[in-house]
Each structure stands twice: as structure tokens, then as C-alpha cells.
């Protein structure tokens, strides 16, 4: 199990946590276990942040994250509190892990059987089966060393990387270069490169701007497996909330914060309805820019608007939540639909923002695994198209894109959904901004670019307001549900370190 620093110095303190996403829930649990009095103020009607649920007419959708990856992180989190994930939810390993439709008519399944996957790679390119094995060996080493020395350890200064233990363990890691450069060393076939890079969507990056270190995600994918928790990711939220309540955390939903004032041992956090919450410390799991620019007095901000404008944000998303009559036999629980050349789509996210004409996208059908998420005789399906943050989001644009996406699904998967839809909701840039106060409507936070990784991300503590801390996807270790769980630990450790 990952070791956690001594947090006992937090005993007897009071903390307000702004935002009930995974980072906020994690931080709250660590603080409460250490003896702090913790109150979580959540803007929306339910906890979970972007892992909200939409329930309508017998359908239940995970509105945001839907992949359960890195099970060891969840085991470490619950294990710290002498629990296991199975105390709160059960896991089903998916087989196949996912299906990919390439838009030239090709189709491939990635499965739990590594030998079968090796044979699939070999079929595309002579020698690729052996290269697949070598790639995963490298990914596994990067994962083991990266998690211990760069993910669970928050290195906020250049001098932290001069530590001999870091230098010794970093030898041979893929610390320099992009994912595109790294993958090209192993595979020539563009489809094999795409298979090894699709997880970049979860990191909010592109092959040419994400550090090669993140090849570790292939170890997560192929060696550790893809799972489905009972109740979806919302079921994991329920488990964390139950744990928090057992530890004494007070949760308040429908409590949007509009002001944070004060300093260490003298904070007041105000909500829009005029309530005031007094505490020794404040932790924000809200959007980092929103916290600084909208909740703090002008003189108490670490960064100005120019800084936030200069950042590279992870994609937003165009989402369709669909209740569909009948089965969708061509689709798996997780399905990816990819152009054979996806460079244009990434360019329209990061280089020349526009709605992509030939999108790469993701389909999730949890009703393949869980019969509680849709009425009998129906399928629960959502579509996610990564798009640039900050795009114009109008009803007319959504309607045009809806037609484009449904046509594309029919053409490239063989599932024509258009006359079978009994329930439909969309979610896009403006909704991310409105519901989550997300800067530019990003669906994830700050992208994991070469210039926004590790110590180049905003810190866990404010350098202007003593006693104010941050957690979640803008901080280290970064984007994704497991990373936000770990961010909660790092934030609690930073609080203890600065109080000692």
C-alpha cells in the first residue's frame, strides 16, 4: 500500500472543502480521518462533481467519467482507512476491454488475454507482437517507478528532482519527448499507434503534446484491466460519500460558494444564499481559475487573467445521453470510433479550434453489463466527442452535430439509432461552464502537455493566502479519477507539512 505522511497535526482543526468532486471527497476523507472537522460545500444537487448522474424515465447515466482504470489506486485509497472497494461496490472486468471501429471498415477488440492482443498486433505488422511485449514491459516499469516517485510524491521544486533516489529510479524512464515520438519507436502501423494512444483522451492531450512518460497508461489498459463498478462511477462516488460520513464529514449539496475571505485560522466561506461557514482552513476542489478569479479578493490571487488565458486546456466534449429501444449488438460496453488519420481532429482541439468534421469519438453502453441502468428491452448509451474548450455552443450547432454524429455511428458501426431513441439529452461546452464553473467549458481541467506537467501545474497551496489549499485536476498529479483521488492525499500531506 502507498504510504501516507503523518497527518496527526490536523487533529482538532476545522476545514471547509469547496466542491464535492473526487478530489474534494478524497481530501475530506483524509482530513476527517486525521481528526479535522470537515464540511464539504457542493454547488450542485448531488456529490461527485463531473461524475454526476442523470436519471430519467428509468435510465441512469454516468454524466462524466465512465472508465474504471488503475484499480490499485482505489485499493490504496480505501485501504488507508482499513476498508476495501468491495465494502462499497463490486467490480466486473470487461471482456472485451473495448472495441475499436476504424472508419475504413476495420474493427478490432482489445481483450483481457494478452496473448490474443499480441496476435492482433502481429496481424497488423510483422514483428509488432514482440514489440507489443517490449512496449508493455517499458510501460510497466514507467508505471511502477512513475507512481512511486512522481505521482504519489509531490515534487514542487526543481531541487526535488535532484534527489539521488529520484535520479537513480528515473534512469531509463521516458521523461523526454512526446507520446508520438515514443510510440513510433515501436510501431509503424498507424492503427497500432492509435491503439496505444487512445488513452490520451483521458489525459486531455494529443500524441504530439503529451509527455512520453504517459505510455504507462498502456500498462494500466492491457496489464491491469478495464472494470465496471456496480452502479457505474456514480457507485464509486456513493462509496466515497459513505466512507466520508463514517469518518464524520458533513456534506451540504446545493450550496454554491460565492466568496472566500480570511486566512489561516480565520476563514469565512459564504454561499450564494447568504450562509457563512467559519473554519481554520479552506480547500478548493472547484475549478482553480474560478476559485482565484471569482471567489477571492483581487489582491489575494496568485495568477492574473493573462496567466489563465495562456494555459492549454483539456478538451471539452459534446455528449449525447440516449435511451434506445432494443439492443445494440454491434457495440460493446466501451467502443471507440476512430478515423484512420485522427491528426485533423486533434488539430481542431489544440491548434485551430473548430467542430471536427470527421470526429473520433467514444460510445458507452453500460446496459451491456448492468441491467439496472435502463428499462427492460432498452439500451443505455452515451456518445462523447472530444472538442476544443471554448467553442461556440448554440442550439443550432448542437442540432447540426447531433445529425452528423448519428449518421457517423450508423455508417461506421452498423447501429442506426435514429428511429429508436426514446430519451435524449445533450451536454456541451456551456453546460460544463454553467454546472461546474469550468474554465472555457473544459471537461477535464489543464491538459497534460509537456509544459503543464508535474511542478509546472498550479500548486496545492496558495502562495498569497495562508491556509488556502487546492485539490483536483488542475493540481498534481493531474487529470482523471485516480489522479484526483491521489490529489486529495497530496493536498492533505501539504497541509500537514506546512502546519508542522
From TrEMBL:
Q: Name one GO molecular function term.
A: oxidoreductase activity
What's the superkingdom here?
Archaea
Keywords from the UniProt entry: Carotenoid biosynthesis, Oxidoreductase
Pathway entry: Carotenoid biosynthesis
**Alphabetized InterPro entries for the sequence:** Amino_oxidase (IPR002937), Carotenoid/retinoid_OxRdtase (IPR014105), FAD/NAD-bd_sf (IPR036188)
A biological process (GO) of this protein is:
carotenoid biosynthetic process
EC number(s) per UniProt?
A: 1.3.99.-
| EC category name | oxidoreductase
UniProt domain Amine oxidase: residue ranges: 23-495
Q: Does the keyword Oxidoreductase apply?
A: yes
The record's listing under Pfam families reads: Amino_oxidase
Q: What is this protein called?
A: Four-step phytoene desaturase
Native source species: Halogeometricum borinquense (strain ATCC 700274 / DSM 11551 / JCM 10706 / KCTC 4070 / PR3)
Amino acid at each position: 500500500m502507498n504510504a501516507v505522511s503523518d497527518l496527526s497535526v490536523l487533529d482538532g482543526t476545522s476545514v471547509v472543502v469547496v466542491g464535492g468532486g473526487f478530489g474534494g471527497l478524497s481530501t475530506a476523507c483524509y482530513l476527517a480521518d486525521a481528526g479535522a472537522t470537515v464540511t464539504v460545500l457542493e454547488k450542485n444537487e448531488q456529490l461527485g462533481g463531473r461524475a454526476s448522474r442523470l436519471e430519467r424515465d428509468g435510465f441512469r447515466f454516468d454524466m462524466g467519467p465512465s472508465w474504471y482504470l488503475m484499480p490499485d489506486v482505489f485499493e490504496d485509497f480505501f485501504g488507508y482507512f482499513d476498508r476495501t472497494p468491495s465494502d462499497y461496490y463490486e467490480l466486473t472486468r470487461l471482456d472485451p476491454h473495448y472495441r475499436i471501429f476504424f472508419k475504413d471498415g476495420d474493427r478490432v477488440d482489445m481483450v483481457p488475454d494478452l496473448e490474443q492482443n499480441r496476435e492482433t498486433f502481429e496481424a497488423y505488422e510483422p514483428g509488432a507482437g514482440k514489440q507489443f511485449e517490449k512496449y508493455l514491459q517499458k510501460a510497466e516499469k514507467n508505471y511502477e517507478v512513475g507512481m512511486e516517485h512522481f505521482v504519489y510524491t509531490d515534487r514542487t521544486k526543481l531541487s526535488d528532482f535532484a534527489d539521488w533516489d529520484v535520479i537513480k529510479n528515473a534512469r531509463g524512464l521516458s521523461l523526454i519527448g512526446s507520446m508520438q515520438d515514443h510510440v513510433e519507436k515501436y510501431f509503424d502501423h498507424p492503427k497500432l499507434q492509435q491503439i496505444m494512444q487512445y488513452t490520451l483522451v483521458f489525459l486531455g492531450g494529443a500524441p504530439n503534446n503529451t509527455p512520453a512518460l504517459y505510455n504507462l497508461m498502456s500498462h494500466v489498459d492491457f496489464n491491469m484491466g478495464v472494470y465496471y463498478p456496480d452502479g457505474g462511477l456514480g457507485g464509486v462516488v456513493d462509496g466515497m460519500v459513505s466512507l466520508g460520513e463514517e469518518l464524520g464529514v458533513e456534506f451540504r449539496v446545493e450550496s454554491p460558494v460565492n466568496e472566500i475571505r480570511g486566512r489561516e485560522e480565520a476563514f469565512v466561506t459564504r454561499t450564494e444564499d447568504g450562509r457563512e461557514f467559519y473554519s481554520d482552513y479552506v480547500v478548493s476542489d472547484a475549478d482553480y481559475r474560478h476559485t482565484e478569479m471569482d471567489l477571492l479578493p483581487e489582491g489575494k490571487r496568485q495568477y492574473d487573467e493573462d496567466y489563465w488565458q495562456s494555459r492549454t486546456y483539456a478538451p471539452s466534449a459534446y455528449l449525447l445521453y440516449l435511451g434506445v429501444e432494443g439492443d445494440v449488438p454491434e457495440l460493446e460496453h466501451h467502443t471507440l470510433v476512430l478515423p484512420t488519420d485522427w491528426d485533423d481532429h486533434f488539430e481542431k482541439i489544440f491548434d485551430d479550434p473548430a467542430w471536427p468534421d470527421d470526429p473520433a469519438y467514444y460510445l458507452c453502453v453500460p446496459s451491456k453489463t448492468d441491467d439496472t441502468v435502463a428499462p427492460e428491452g432498452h439500451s443505455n448509451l452515451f456518445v462523447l466527442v472530444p472538442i476544443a474548450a471554448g467553442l461556440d455552443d448554440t442550439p443550432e450547432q448542437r442540432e447540426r452535430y447531433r445529425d452528423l454524429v448519428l449518421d457517423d455511428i450508423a455508417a461506421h458501426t452498423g447501429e442506426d439509432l435514429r428511429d429508436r431513441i426514446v430519451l435524449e439529452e445533450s451536454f456541451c461546452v456551456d453546460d460544463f461552464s454553467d454546472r461546474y464553473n469550468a474554465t472555457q467549458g473544459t471537461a477535464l481541467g489543464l491538459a497534460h502537455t509537456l509544459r503543464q506537467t508535474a511542478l509546472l501545474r498550479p500548486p496545492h497551496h496558495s502562495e498569497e493566502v495562508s491556509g488556502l489549499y487546492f485539490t483536483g485536476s488542475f493540481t498534481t498529479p493531474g487529470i482523471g479519477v485516480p489522479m484526483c483521488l491521489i490529489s486529495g492525499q497530496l493536498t492533505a500531506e501539504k497541509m500537514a507539512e506546512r502546519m508542522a
